[in-house]
Amino acid sequence: MSLTTLIKAIQDIMRKDVGVDGDAQRISQMVWLIFLKIFDDKEQEWQLTVPGYKSPLPSRFRWSSWAKNPEGMTGEELIDFVNNDLFPALKKLATAAGVSPHGKVVGSVFEDAYNYMKSGTLLRQVINTIEEDVDFNKSGDRHLFNDIYEKILSDLQSAGNAGEYYTPRAVTQFMVDMLDPQLGQTILDPACGTGGFLTCAIEHLNKQVKTAEDRKRLQECIHGVEKKPLPHMLAMTNMMLHGIDVPTNVRHDNTLSRPLKDYGPRDRVDLIITNPPFGGMEEDGIENNFPRKYQTRETADLFMALIMHLLKHDTGKAAVVLPDGFLFGEGTKTNLKRELLEEFNLHTIVRLPKGVFSPYTSIATNILFFEKGGPTKEVWFFEHPYPEGYKSYSRSKPLTIAEFDLEKAWWGGAERKGRKTTEQAWKVSAKELAERNYNLDCKNPHEVEVNHRDPEELMAEYQQIVHQLEAAQTALKAELMACLGGKA
């Protein structure tokens, strides 16, 4: 069965169930089922490869016990088992004492998960469809699982508020490529959503893995936090699909709920790659976790304060997506930007065109690249152009990673040497930015300014065109009347 056919078959079955309401619930339902299928297939592998491995799940709760047999539980018996036995048992793994790391992973996934389906017969049909068509331990099917995951993400984009945790693949890839993570460096996404930045980093680091010890170091260096249940569930599944078998470092939590002063040296990391939620407001009281100079309820600003605090002294580096509003905003934003220029090297701002995050938002966005150990001497700006013939991006014409070849050719390698002013690139001194009250919304000085001309001159030209059009219409009417023998 093809991927599209498989996903459609599952969704068509779920649409018949009165308990599942809308795309988001269908996706959530599909993800916890696929997670358990993946976990069961992985357990078969671990029993062969991990000495002394013992499942954290009682035998009756393992997928192979209750779901694998197509003639197994169904109807009311299945719904009763899932709602009253399976889910309570899996949720307990999140907080119970003495649970293995593998068990903690399952618990964190199911902590806020729900079974929305009410028909055990339809649930059995969904389970059988998943079980019959994919085996995670077959290399071909493992690739198919990645495709299934990407298709789920694609569907999630249509489910309403997906823009809160979805970043175009081309953007995540470019940011990781430019930061160039190295094995052994700690990498954090404090608002990781479905794990896009982290999986890009894993794929980048996989090229450096040579031994089992390298694989262990990779697993230990990936860190993420996501506060919403559905994207966290997707992130955990995504980690396992990318070889992070025990993703206990990807936590279900709100990074901002911990007082900034409580983050100590042990919490600092080498690299932060993220697209923090922007345009949103945090709940009352969260701002009190931050010093007065940072106190605001605007989510993106609080995340910037946190990111700057969590980078390791002298070595920490970050790539962060932020909206135009951060560049020209005042108040807390000014305080953050002053510190960014005085205590960090804000070396590059890539200005992305509108439409990159379409259809969620038309707000123009930017990627800020900075590192600990400032101060900033000058900021390079690079204005990313639309491809020839484009006026915007769309779902059918998205931003592609190949477009960033422009930035990569100009970047100047790891040391950023030999950068030159071009039609897309220019630099502004930190002194000038300070004099602008830290307004970083610097326009491209090479952009050809459109001359809209004087309104009176334009009106006169318009009237002339109208007169010419009327004269042409009169002449055409005369010609037609002549052809018709003068009849009106």
UniProtKB/TrEMBL annotation:
MF term (GO), any: site-specific DNA-methyltransferase (adenine-specific) activity
Family per similarity comment: Belongs to the N(4)/N(6)-methyltransferase family.
GO biological process: DNA restriction-modification system; methylation
Keywords recorded for this protein, A-Z: Methyltransferase, Restriction system, S-adenosyl-L-methionine, Transferase
Domain N6 adenine-specific DNA methyltransferase N-terminal: 6-130
Record keyword DNA repair present: no
PANTHER family: SLR6095 PROTEIN, TYPE I RESTRICTION ENZYME ECOKI METHYLASE SUBUNIT
The keyword S-adenosyl-L-methionine is annotated on this UniProt entry: yes
Organism: Desulfococcus multivorans DSM 2059
Domain DNA methylase adenine-specific per the UniProt entry, residue ranges: 141-449
InterPro entries, per database record: D12N6_MeTrfase_N, DNA_Adenine_Mtase, DNA_methylase_A-5, DNA_methylase_N6_adenine_CS, SAM-dependent_MTases_sf, T1MK-like_N_sf
Pfam families: HsdM_N (PF12161), N6_Mtase (PF02384)
Protein's name according to its UniProt entry: site-specific DNA-methyltransferase (adenine-specific)
Entries under SUPFAM superfamilies matching the protein: S-adenosyl-L-methionine-dependent methyltransferases (SSF53335)
Catalysed reactions listed for this entry: a 2'-deoxyadenosine in DNA + S-adenosyl-L-methionine = an N(6)-methyl-2'-deoxyadenosine in DNA + S-adenosyl-L-homocysteine + H(+)
Transmembrane region(s): none
EC code(s) of this entry: 2.1.1.72
